[in-house]
Amino acid sequence: MTPTVDEAGRALATPAAYADEARLHEALAVLRRESPVHLVEQDGYNPFWAVTRHADVLEVERRHDLFRNAPRPVLGTAEFDRMNNARIAQGAAMRTLVHMDDPDHRVIRAIGADWFRPKAMRALEPRVRELARRYVDRLADLGGRCDFVQEVAVHFPLYVILSLLGLPESDFDRMLRLTQELFGGDDEEMQRGTTPEEKLAVVLDFFAYFQELTAARRAHPTDDLASAIANARVDGEPLSDTDTGSYYVIIATAGHDTTSSTIAGGLHALVTHPDQLDRLRADLSLMPLAVDEMIRWVTPVKAFMRTAAADHELRGVTIRRGDSLLLAYPSANRDEDVFADPFRFDVGRDPNKHLAFGFGVHYCLGAALARIEVRAFFEELLPRLRSVEPDGEPTGIATTFVGGLKRLPIRYTLEG
């Protein structure tokens, strides 16, 4: 049964809805068609406006002076918001680039920007390709059956980003567990606990780890990104412990979880669209377009929040100062006004104006690295792939923020 507009809106504050793509996209289609800027009132959450059209998400992203990230950059329960506001007042809240507005955002972003510029990415690409080969070899070693997410996809991008940071390989499993607990806080399999206090404990564990790392890099600077963050200065002063820890957290978590979701979801799309798999295998020059189509298809970042700094009219709806807006990226990336046949997976889609990396001043810092990783993996995999098919039902993660598949059982044959 097609949901009502209000039911569709409430789906955006229902983590389980994101684990059921058919349900989610049915709800988003209703909102795009009937109420593109829709007030959502869901039990346990502070109200927010759901923005579901590509043009409107783009307008909000462009107007970063009017629509601010602080104080509610991600969707959480009302209790989560209350605790976060209390920590902001104490100066103890996490402050990643996601949480910041200019001028702080511009200054803090610049600390890591050089590590993700084209020159740095070209220098890193041979290492990424080496790791891609390693994990395709790992796929071969698994003997033709595996859970692709848990045994391959989560590990390759994790290895890349933590190597860039300069973390020891012995700590990688710990970082993976903490990331899954952070982004899987609403998923029964992934979460550490259900209370806001238990979810906060994950952040505190991250901070404890990274405080030790900061001290080590300040005492003995190295040539990795962790050292650049630890030794950065703003107006002659080092970053606070909160800002340093927050910077590490966003790089270490978003830097691999979103990419692993894209690789897993991209393979699933190819498996379920065998004509597109055959097309791509026959013409690997399509890979840059295919990578962006995988990113659009998966849209691993489901939503960011913004807060209006002044009254504003958006698609005929008056948004009041202080109102919250949710930018529904999976909806924008299926907008019929922008994408021809948006529910068709097309490895040659061009143009592809997806918003999976955001837009404007908050455009994803690691977008180029993500594209390199996805491209490298599939350029290593497809020439060796002889067959692939489902080996059970895939399952998605329950979330309202970041996620994708948490299980993808496959059967396959590889050459070499």
UniProtKB/TrEMBL annotation:
Q: List the keywords (alphabetical).
A: Heme, Iron, Metal-binding, Monooxygenase, Oxidoreductase
Q: Does the keyword Heme apply?
A: yes
- Tell me which PROSITE patterns the record gives: CYTOCHROME_P450
Q: Which Gene3D superfamilies match?
A: Cytochrome P450
> Which GO MF terms are attached to this record?
cholest-4-en-3-one 26-monooxygenase activity; heme binding; iron ion binding; steroid hydroxylase activity
A Pfam family reported for this protein in Swiss-Prot or TrEMBL = p450
Tagged with keyword Hydrolase: no
Classification via SUPFAM superfamilies: Cytochrome P450 (SSF48264)
Record GO biological process: cholesterol catabolic process
What InterPro entries is this protein classified in?
Answer: Cyt_P450 (IPR001128), Cyt_P450_B (IPR002397), Cyt_P450_CS (IPR017972), Cyt_P450_sf (IPR036396)
The UniProt similarity line reads: Belongs to the cytochrome P450 family.
Q: Which protein are we looking at?
A: Cytochrome P450
Q: What is the lineage of its organism?
A: Bacteria, Bacillati, Actinomycetota, Actinomycetes, Streptosporangiales
